[in-house]
Design brief:
The protein contains two helices and ten strands. The chain is α+β, with helices and mostly antiparallel strands. The strands form two sheets. Strands 3-4-5-6-10-9-8-7 form an eight-stranded antiparallel sheet. A two-stranded antiparallel ribbon has the order 1-2. A hairpin with a 2-residue loop joins strand 5 and strand 6. The longest helix has 19 residues, at 72-90.
Length: 154
Amino acid sequence: PPVVAGVPLGRRRADVERLLALRGATVLRRDDGATSYLGCPGGDPAAISCTLTFRRGRAAAVMEVLPGLGTARADLERWRARAAAIAAEVGRPAVVSCPAGGPGRGGEDCTATWSSPRLERVVGARRGGAGGGGDGLSVYIGAEYPPLDPGQDD
């Protein structure tokens, strides 16, 4: 399984949480299905949070949220830059979806997505999430390990 933002996907929850604790991760919140940290130790240093989602007792997804830059225009540029960087890393363009006016207040995000049988990556921008004030957006970077999709059998 892949490692994203320093998080070994597909591994048992206790092992992942122990590893992140050894690397100095600060837990913000923990519930039955997820643990949120004040950034991932191996992730983006600018991230204000890093949330791990667990399925069947294993790390299935990781999402980092970056602070807003203050304006929607600046945040959309950050989204584009992050998408371009991941496209260069992955070696192919993303499938992009974005409403004409940018992210809406009704939950329509701008997303750039790369999918494979082993890893799905997304860079998104949304209104009303964590991050700066003004008319800014939240930019998030996520990864999911498809073998642990919620609809699959054990």
